[in-house]
Amino acid sequence: MHLTVPMAEKMSSQQRFVLSVAVLASFISFLDATVINVALPAISRELGGELTSQQWVVDAYLITLGAVILLAGSLSDVFGRKKVLLAGLIGFGVTSLLCAFAPTIEFLIISRGLQGIAGALLVPSSLALILATFSGPMQSRAIGTWTAFTSVANIAGPILGGVLVDQVSWRLVFGINVLPIIVTLFLLTKLDHDHARIAGAKIDVVGAVLGIVGLGLPVFALIEQSNFGWGSPVVLVPLIVGVVAFVAFILHERRAKQPMLPLELFRVRNFSVGNVSTFLIYGALSLGFFCVAVFLQQVAGYSATEAGFAMIPTSLLLIGLSSLFGRLSGKIGPRLFMTVGPFLAGAGFLLMLRIDQSADYLTQVLPAVVVFGLGMSITVAPLTAAILGAIDPSRSGIASAVNNAVSRVAGLIAVALASLIAGAAVLDLDGFHRVVLVTAVFFVAGGVVSLIGIQNPSKAAKPAAAAPAAAPSVPSSGSAPVIPDAAAPDAPAPDAGAAPSR
Predict the structure, then answer these.
(1) Least confident piece of the model among 19-28, 118-127, 271-280
(2) What count of other Cβ atoms lies within 10 Å of the Cβ of residue 335?
(3) Phi, psi at residue 391, to the nearest 5°?
(4) Residue 470 pLDDT > 80
(5) What gap in Å lies between CA 211 and CA 394, rounded to an integer?
(6) Confidence tier at 30 by pLDDT (50, 70, 90)
(7) More confident: 343 or 319
(8) What is the pLDDT of residue 228?
(9) Does the pLDDT at position 281 exceed 70?
C-alpha cells in the first residue's frame, strides 16, 4: 500500500512506507471499534447473555484501551516506536483470532480485554512514526492524509460488519483484521531502525496498575449492580476498592517524576474545560450509539446490515463538514460552535423519542440521525482546536493523548451505565427512550460547560509555557467511542479537527 498526496515537497519512498504503515495500523484499530456494535445481538444469540454481557463485550476493550493508551508514549520512548507497533500488531492479530473463535461469552470478554491492550499500542505509535518522519507543512499534510484514510473506517465498519453478520457469521467481524495486519507487518519490515532509547525514560508501572484497577473495578460494579444489587459484596467491594485505587492514582501522578498523566496540563483553562466537555459529549456518544445499535436490531427488527447503514449519514456529515467548521472556528473562536453543536446533537437524540417499535427509518430514524450528525460536525473540529490550541506545541502530543484517554474513559463509563439507565436486563422501547433522553441531557450539558468555560483565543490566556518533560510522550488521536479519531498536533488550530473516534 503506497499513499500519494499532493504536496509541495515530494515524499521519499521511506516516508511513503511510514505513512502506509501508520494508516493501516490505525485503520485496523478503528475498524474493529466500529464493527462491534452491530454484531452484539448476534453474539448474544449464539453465546448467550443479555444487556450486561453486551456491555462487557464493549467495555472489556475500553477498560484496557483507556488505561494503557497514556502508557503507550512511555513504552515507545523506552522500547522504540517500531518495536511497540510490532508488538501491538501481533497482539491485535492474536487476540482478534481469540475473539473470532471464542467458545463462550466469558472467553470473548477476556479476549476483548487483551485486544484493548494491543489496540492501545497502535494509534499512538503510528502517529509517533509520522511525527518522527515528517516535519513542517509536510507533517501536517501527512497527518491530514492519515485522518482522511482512517475516517473511512467509520463508514466501512458498520456496513462491512453488518454484511458479515447477516451473510456469514459475527465471528468474521474479528477475523477481517488478520489480512491487513499481515500486510502492515510486511511494510513494517521496510522501515528504518528504531531511534535509540531516550536516556532516563521510564515506564510509570505503578500509575498504569492503579489506573486499570481504578477504572476497571468501578465499571464492574456499575455493570453488575443490575444482577446483584448495590448492597451485594460482589458490587460494593469492587466499587470501594476501585474508588480508593483511583484516588491513589491521582495522588501518585501528582508526585511521580515521569507521570503517565501530567496533571499540570489541567491548569490551562481551555484544556481543562475542553476535557470536561469531551467527557460529557463522548460519554453521550458512546451511550447513544451502543443502545441505538442494540435497539434497532433486537426491538425494531433491523438486520445487522440495516443497522450498520442507519448511522451512515452521520459519518458523511462529519467527513464533509468537519474541516469547514474547523476553519470557521479559527476565525471567530471555538466557543460558539462548542455550544451550538452539542445542543443540536442533543436535539437529534430528543427526536429519537418519536421512535416506536417499528422504528421507521425515513420518518423516525433518519431525521434524528441527520440533526445529530450536523451537531457533531459543528462540534468536533472546534473542540479539538480549543484543547490542543491551549497547550504549547511542544506538549501537544501528551495533550492529544490525554484528551483521547478522557474520551475513551467517558465511553467506558457511559456504556457501563446503560443497563442502570434502561432499567432492565433487556433493552425495550421504554428503556430505549430513557437512554436517549439521558444521552440528550449529556450533550446539552457539554454545550453548557463550553458556553460558560471556553474562552475564544483573543480572550484566552496564552498557552502555558512548555515544561521540559522527563520522558517525551507520544501523541494520540484527539477524541473517542465509535467514530475515527483525529488530531493533527502540529497543524494550525483553525484547521484542526476531524471525525471523533468510536
Answers:
(1) 118-127
(2) 23
(3) -110, 145
(4) no
(5) 25
(6) confident
(7) 343
(8) 82
(9) yes
Q: Which residue carries 475473539 as its cell?
A: 99
Angle at 410 between CA 407 and CA 414, to 5 degrees: 140
The set of cell numbers assigned to 147 is: 485522518
Residue 135: phi and psi, rounded to 5, are -145, 160
- Give the C-alpha distances (Å, rounded to integers) separating 495 from 384, 426, 489: 10, 43, 11
In angstroms, the CA 54 to CA 110 distance is 13
Question: Coil, helix or strand for 425?
Answer: coil
Distances in Å between the alpha carbon of 29 and those of 55, 155, 287, 475?
Answer: 19, 14, 20, 16
| Cβ-based neighbour number of residue 465 at 10 Å | 8
Residues in the chain: 502
Q: Which of 424, 55, 401 is nearest to 221 (CA)?
A: 55
Residue 222 has pLDDT above 90, yes or no: no
- The yes-or-no verdict on residue 475 having pLDDT over 50 is no
- The Cα–Cα gap between 304 and 311 comes to 12
154-198 residue pLDDT tens = 667 777 888 888 888 999 888 888 888 998 888 888 777 665 556
Q: Which among 340, 322, 321 has a CA at the least distance from the CA of 444?
A: 340
pLDDT: which is higher, 439 or 64? 439
Q: What is the mean pLDDT of residues 73-98?
A: 83
Closest CA to 388 of 469, 484, 457: 457
Picking from 482, 426, 501, the residue whose alpha carbon sits closest to that of residue 41 is 426
Cα 359 off chain centre by: 28
C-alpha separations of 117 from 3, 231, 296, 392 in Å: 28, 32, 30, 29
Indicate the domain borders of the chain: 13-204+256-495, 205-255
Class of the CATH-defined domain 13-204+256-495? mainly alpha
